[in-house]
Amino acid sequence: MKTDQQIEFYDNLEKKGVSRRDFLKYCTALTATMGLSYSCVGKVAEQIEAAAAQRPAVIWLHFGECTGCSEAFLRTPDVGGIILETISVEYHETIMAASGHQAEQNLHNAVKQYDGKFVCVVEGAIATAHNGAYGKVGGRTFLDIAWDVIPHAAVTLAIGSCAAYGGVAAAAPNPGGYKGVTDAIGAPAINLPGCPMNPLNLLGTILKYLNNEPMEMDGYGRPLFAYGESVHDRCPRLKHYENFEFATEFGSKEVEMGYCLLDLGCKGPETYNNCPTAKFNDSTSFPIQAGHPCIGCSEPGFWDTMTPFYEET
C-alpha cells in the first residue's frame, strides 16, 4: 500500500505529464545507466521515491557556459520532471521567476538557510585571470560567487565539461583563465562532464548521494557507473566494424554501411562516457548512432587535445 508521500510524488509527476509508466521506463533506463541488472528496477524506483521525500535543497550556479546542461534535462521532460520532484531548487537563473536584486537575495538567503546541507550544482567554467574579471553575475565575479557559495555546500556536482574541467571556455589561448570548479578554487567536486552532460547521469548521481551509496570515481573525479568504460567499448557500431574488417579481408562487396567511424576521426576509444547506453533526447539516440563521430567532449581539455574533430579519408 502506497504512503501519502508516495501518492503525492506520483500525483506531482502526473501534473508534469509524467505517467507512472513513463516513470518506470526511466527507472529502467537509469538502472541500465548505473550498471545494475533489470531486477533492480523496482529498487531504483523505491530509491527515487525515498529521495523525493527528502528533497534536498539545491543551489544551481551558472558561470561561463551555454546553459546546454540545463537545457539537456529541461528538454528531456520526463527525466527533468523526476529530477525536479527529487530535489528542491532554491536558486537557478534559467528557471526561477525572480530576477535582478530579488534573485541575488534569494541566493544569499538560500546559502544562509541551508548552510552545510545543500547540494551545489555548478554549470560552467570559472574565470580566474585578473581576479575573475572576465565573468560576472550581478556585478560580482564568478570567482567571488564560487568562493562565497561552494564551500558552504554539503556536496558539489560540476555538471558539463565546462564546470568539470573548463571546457570550451578554457580552450587555448584562454585569456580569461577559465577553469573547472576544483582547479579554480580547490573545492572537491563530483564531475559529470559532457557537452552537455546526460540528465540520467545527474539523476543517478543524486540518487547515490541521497542514499549514501559509495561513489566510486576515476582519477578525473567522474563516477565510474557512468564513466567507467569508453564510448568505443559500448558502441553498437563496434560489431559492425568487426564485420567490415572481416568482409574486407575476404574481398566481400556486401559490407554493411553501419561500420565504425574511427577512420572519420571518432574519439570514442579515448573518451569515457555512457552515451551509447544512456543516449539523449528521451534515450532516442546519440551522436555516433546518428552517424557523427565522437568528439571526446567528456575528456579534460577535449577542445585542444581532441582536435581536429574530422579527418579526411
Notable traits:
Rossmann fold, alpha/beta, 313 residues, two-stranded antiparallel sheet
Major beta-sheet overview: 5 strands, parallel
Task: Count helical runs.
Answer: 15
> If you average the pLDDT, what whole number results?
87
What top-tier CATH class of the largest domain fits best?
Answer: Alpha Beta
Strand order of the largest sheet: 2-1-3-7-9
Number of strands: 9
Question: What is the rounded distance between the termini?
Answer: 61 Å
CATH superfamily of the largest domain: NADH:ubiquinone oxidoreductase-like, 20kDa subunit
The topology string of helices and strands comes to HHHEHHEHEEEEHEHEHEHHHHHH
Do you know the CATH topology of the largest domain? Rossmann fold
**Percent of residues in helices:** 40-55%
Strand coverage percent: 5-15%
CATH architectural type of the largest domain = 3-Layer(aba) Sandwich
Indicate how many domains the architecture comprises.
2
User: What gyration radius follows from the Cα positions, in whole Å?
Assistant: 21 Å
What class, by secondary structure content?
A: alpha/beta
